[in-house]
Design goal:
The complex is a heterodimer.
Chain A (H helix, E strand, L loop, with lengths): L2 H9 L4 H22 L2 H18 L8 H19 L7 H10 L11 E2 L2 H14 L2 H11 L5 H8 L3 H21 L2 E2 L1
Parallel strand pairs in A: 1-2
Chain B lengths: L2 H10 L3 H9 L10 H33 L21 H18 L9 E11 L2 E8 L8 E5 L3 E2 L7 E6 L3 E2 L6 E2 L3 E7 L3
The chains are: A mainly alpha, B alpha+beta.
Chain lengths: 185, 193
């Protein structure tokens, strides 16, 4: 079923919407949640909550890309769950992702603009658009989808060590770009 | 919320079309070129071991044919089935080792087969070599900064030049920046404007 048809089901308050969503995007949602939480049970709960959130927000929302919409919800729910349990150090996936993303934080010397996450998203999107298609896909597969370096390296046929360095360079380039824009977090 | 989490949230909200594109993107799978020589070497060793084993096997077949009348039938080429002239099979079996060994000896090494070329821009001319950034040639190396050690370098270039770099494909990743190994040829394809 096409995304637009699934969204229509939500708008019609038809419960098949959730079933269709699960059929089409269930595996994707689990993958994103698992990559952050590394816990099947917690991921399962996040996926269920995601469907509930979809039910609550459509209407009025009518997303153009259901994948991106679901992904944003599940990332938010997963990171919230991570934050709630951070003290327990339970979720290795998010720890690693956040640790890597620390490389992208602009230096405080260049503080000019204190941005909201939405504005920052715009800068990051603009930066992504300027990358090659492969670099863009690589960055998002790692930091949006949360895929592991090992899996990505295998998919690309390169060594994990080389991929790690390439990702490090990309994070540094993002940091330079944000610093150049005078962005601070 | 710490800064990395703010970035995480910001990445969460990047444009949906980029998310879709990343999902649909299929990486061009490639074999690392520096792995090719290693694989080739492993294949040669395996071939050599097989050849040696077979030559020994056939040599044994020949001698068995001499010693045991008709006893070499299970070798196939080792002797006649009727056993009347088991020894006559020896030359055939002896040739077996030559036939197995000759293809290895007859294959001259191709020195250009494993060379690897990327296009790069010279970032800096240093005492210890050229610092370059890879512009094209291999996705894995794309935008990678590499050092071309002066001692192994043939050809010259200025900072800003776009050059073709040809070398064995081996890279020392343990050094920062990674260093190309073996002999390196640099050819300017676009001088600095």
């Amino acid at each position: 079923m096409e995304d637009i048809q699934i969204v229509d089901l939500y708008w019609q308050r038809d419960e098949r919407a959730i079933r269709e969503t699960d059929m089409k995007y269930g595996a994707f949602c689990h993958r994103v949640a698992m990559n952050i939480l590394r816990s099947f049970q917690d991921s399962e709960e996040c996926v269920s909550d995601t469907y509930g959130r979809c039910w609550d927000t459509m209407p009025p929302q009518r997303p153009g890309s259901l994948r991106a919409y679901l992904g944003a919800i599940i990332r938010n729910l997963s990171i919230s769950r991570y934050r709630a349990s951070r003290a327990q150090k339970r979720f290795g996936g998010a720890e690693v992702l956040l640790s890597e993303l620390s490389d992208c934080i602009p230096a405080p010397d260049n503080m000019e603009k204190q941005l909201e996450a939405v504005e920052l998203s715009g800068y990051i999107s603009d930066w992504l658009v300027r990358l090659s298609a492969e670099d863009r896909a690589l960055f998002l597969r790692r930091y949006w989808y949360g895929d592991s370096v090992k899996d990505l390296a295998e998919e690309m046929g390169v060594r994990p060590n080389a991929l790690t360095k390439r990702l490090l360079q990309m994070r540094e380039r993002l940091r330079h770009c944000l610093e150049k824009e005078g962005v601070s977090i | 919320m710490n800064k990395a989490e703010i970035l995480f949230d910001a990445i969460t909200n990047v444009r949906p079309e980029l998310i879709e594109e990343a999902h649909a993107y299929r990486f061009r799978r490639r074999t690392a070129r520096w792995a090719v020589p290693r694989l080739a070497a492993a294949a040669c060793i395996a071939l050599l071991v097989t050849a040696v084993w077979w030559s020994g096997f056939f040599a044994m077949g020949g001698s068995a044919g001499d010693n045991y009348s008709g006893g070499s039938g299970w070798y196939g080429a080792g002797g006649n089935v009727d056993g009347s002239d088991g020894g006559s099979a020896s030359p055939d079996s002896g040739n077996g080792s030559d036939q197995q060994g000759s293809p290895i000896g007859d294959s001259p090494p191709d020195p250009g087969a494993n060379l690897y070329t990327v296009t790069a821009q010279v970032l800096e001319v240093r005492e210890d070599g050229l610092l370059v950034e890879v512009l094209s040639g291999d996705g894995e190396l794309l935008h990678q900064t590499l050092l071309l050690p002066a001692a192994a370098l043939t050809g010259t270039a200025e900072a800003g030049d776009v050059v073709n770099v040809t070398w064995s494909g081996e890279i020392d990743w343990e050094r920062e920046p990674p260093v190309l190994l073996g002999e390196i040829t640099v050819e300017t394809v676009q001088p600095k404007t």
